[in-house]
Amino acid sequence: MIYLYRTMQKGPVEAVYHNFRSSLGRSILLGLEFLVAADIINTVAIDPTLQSVAVLAAVVAVRTFLSFALEVEIDGEWTWRKHRSKEDSV
Asked: Is the pLDDT assigned to residue 71 strictly greater than 60?
């Protein structure tokens, strides 16, 4: 809906698409962060066993990898390269 509204406004379609894609990716990243926090709270609140901690570690590792991959896809560059390019431009 937002994409269609912004596309109808004056402006380059490519920029609108990039902004919409970036916003959607950031929303998904925020959702992943909440899911990781919920899993951690759930494991700590319930009687933690070795099996539940191992499952939590696996879930957090997978979600961390997904977050990292999504961040790279949104920005189009590696996370550590982003900081270098900012320093080079100063």
From this structure: yes
In angstroms, the first-to-last Cα distance of the chain is 38
Helix (H, G, I), strand (E, B), or coil: what is residue 59?
helix
From the list 28, 26, 39, the residue with the least C-alpha distance to 75 is 26
Averaged pLDDT score across all residues of the chain: 78
Taken in order 8, 10, 14, 16, is the CA torsion positive or negative?
A: negative
Alpha-carbon distance of 23 to 32, in angstroms, equals 14
What is the average pLDDT across 50-54?
Answer: 85
Q: How far apart are CA 27 and CA 11, in angstroms?
A: 23
